[in-house]
Amino acid sequence: MQSKTSSLAPALNYFPTLKPPHKTLAFHQFSVLSITFLAYASFHASRKPPSIVKSVLGPTIQSNSSSADTGWDPFNGPHGAHRLGELDLAFLSAYSIGMYFAGHVGDRIDLRLFLVFGMMCSGILTICFGLGYWFGVHLLGYFMAVQVLCGLVQSIGWPCVVAVVGNWFEKEKRGLIMGVWSSHTSVGNIIGSVVASGVLEFGWGWSFVVPGVLVILVGILVFLFLPVSPEHLGFESLVKEIQMNVEVNGIENLEGKVESEEAGLLGTENADVDTGADSLAAIGFLEAWRLPGVAPFAFCLFFSKLVSYTFLYWLPFYIRHTAVAGVHLSHKTAGNLSAIFDIGGVFGGILAGLISDMIEARAVTSIAFLLLSVPALVFYRVYGSLSMVANILLMFLSGLLVNGPYSLITTAVAADLGTQTVIRGNSRALATVTAIIDGTGSVGAALGPLLAGYISTTGWNNVFLMLIFAIFCATLFLIRIARTEIKGNLNEGKWSLYSIGTQ
């Protein structure tokens, strides 16, 4: 947790009825989930416009009408797809680099203020990109610079929201809770797709300005209402007891204890819990890398996120340039249709979290989703252009299977690894571990769209082959952990028919 020097959200000071004993622990847990959900959804909504406007900015194609797209210099030339891929690389490279530093800083300062800073800067820079439309900017350097700066400040978001949520929830059932919560990524993509596509007809600049304003407005909400940890509201001793029982003794069924104590102001100290410097000291970067499971999941996410972000940045462009039932879709229709992939991702994240909780095996769940995504991608490429119905169904299935393990690893797995017993429940390691895993994944996220920009000029079949190869690489890093999970669950009898049926 953050130290008590962290400031309490202003609205909680101005309105005492929002604090205990007027509001329970459950109320604040739901509030934290909702606010952080909106915060990261707005981040992703502001990342979506570049993929929506690709078909407007990029190389021209003959549409169904008599006119052709004109594009936007410098992205409409013969190397336009390359330039667009490089633009993605600028953002995602800065994002991945910034992620490592953001997690390190986030473990040491007020998470709420750090998150708000990132949101405000992200909103302003997203608007600045859109202003290039009205000011007639055609300099590649301008757009690259804006994307680099935007990537750096957007990297603040993820370590902060995961650390805050990790402070408020114990490890049990974290897979399901975070599976539902992690749908903010896909929900944000959907909102970004619909909003950016909806205003595209008024000029591509609006596709950036509106999501940018949205991030700023949600940032104000975060500043006013987000509590960083339970101890700031007086739930300190209860949270310590939950952490000790879950992480050390493995005791379940704490609901009765929670219900009996959460209504009061729980400020008494727990004599059995070490509250010294060890529990508050932030973990070092290299020390976090050496924690069990961090490196394998980080490199798995490298390839998993490579696949997911290739779809995030290139799917609308692919749909626009691939005839469905012999017809090329409009920019707006292609952008809206791409949201189906993210709708599948919402269900994928929830399903992966639920399954991983039921079988108590995060790596096994991730591998299953990854392997099933291979035939899904093949079918989408081969049969997705036959009809609109086939396109929608196969796109939904691909999104479900591709985003399932991505959501699971970036949320429940990262939180598990950041609060494991080997670091004695040091929750201030959570932002650092989260940043390492997602930062490594973001390197893959930067590489995927760049490669897609170059490889797409040789044919989309080659792009899909690249994605399938990345999926197989992702599974390799989890095989050892999956074997350990399987042996452990079999030895403990957790995978017997009776035990599975009673979960």
UniProtKB/TrEMBL annotation:
<feature type="transmembrane region" description="Helical">
    <location>
        <begin position="206"/>
        <end position="226"/>
    </location>
</feature>
<keyword id="KW-1133">Transmembrane helix</keyword>
<feature type="transmembrane region" description="Helical">
    <location>
        <begin position="363"/>
        <end position="383"/>
    </location>
</feature>
<dbReference type="InterPro" id="IPR020846">
    <property type="entry name" value="MFS_dom"/>
</dbReference>
<feature type="transmembrane region" description="Helical">
    <location>
        <begin position="335"/>
        <end position="356"/>
    </location>
</feature>
<feature type="domain" description="Major facilitator superfamily (MFS) profile">
    <location>
        <begin position="34"/>
        <end position="485"/>
    </location>
</feature>
<feature type="transmembrane region" description="Helical">
    <location>
        <begin position="429"/>
        <end position="451"/>
    </location>
</feature>
<dbReference type="GO" id="GO:0055062">
    <property type="term" value="P:phosphate ion homeostasis"/>
</dbReference>
<feature type="transmembrane region" description="Helical">
    <location>
        <begin position="25"/>
        <end position="43"/>
    </location>
</feature>
<dbReference type="GO" id="GO:0005789">
    <property type="term" value="C:endoplasmic reticulum membrane"/>
</dbReference>
<keyword id="KW-0472">Membrane</keyword>
<feature type="transmembrane region" description="Helical">
    <location>
        <begin position="463"/>
        <end position="482"/>
    </location>
</feature>
<feature type="transmembrane region" description="Helical">
    <location>
        <begin position="113"/>
        <end position="136"/>
    </location>
</feature>
<dbReference type="GO" id="GO:0022857">
    <property type="term" value="F:transmembrane transporter activity"/>
</dbReference>
<dbReference type="InterPro" id="IPR011701">
    <property type="entry name" value="MFS"/>
</dbReference>
<comment type="similarity">
    <text>Belongs to the major facilitator superfamily. Organophosphate:Pi antiporter (OPA) (TC 2.A.1.4) family.</text>
</comment>
<dbReference type="InterPro" id="IPR036259">
    <property type="entry name" value="MFS_trans_sf"/>
</dbReference>
<feature type="transmembrane region" description="Helical">
    <location>
        <begin position="294"/>
        <end position="315"/>
    </location>
</feature>
<keyword id="KW-0762">Sugar transport</keyword>
<keyword id="KW-0813">Transport</keyword>
<keyword id="KW-0812">Transmembrane</keyword>
<protein>
    <recommendedName>
        <fullName>Major facilitator superfamily (MFS) profile domain-containing protein</fullName>
    </recommendedName>
</protein>
<feature type="transmembrane region" description="Helical">
    <location>
        <begin position="142"/>
        <end position="169"/>
    </location>
</feature>
<dbReference type="Pfam" id="PF07690">
    <property type="entry name" value="MFS_1"/>
</dbReference>
<dbReference type="InterPro" id="IPR000849">
    <property type="entry name" value="Sugar_P_transporter"/>
</dbReference>
<feature type="transmembrane region" description="Helical">
    <location>
        <begin position="176"/>
        <end position="200"/>
    </location>
</feature>
<feature type="transmembrane region" description="Helical">
    <location>
        <begin position="389"/>
        <end position="417"/>
    </location>
</feature>
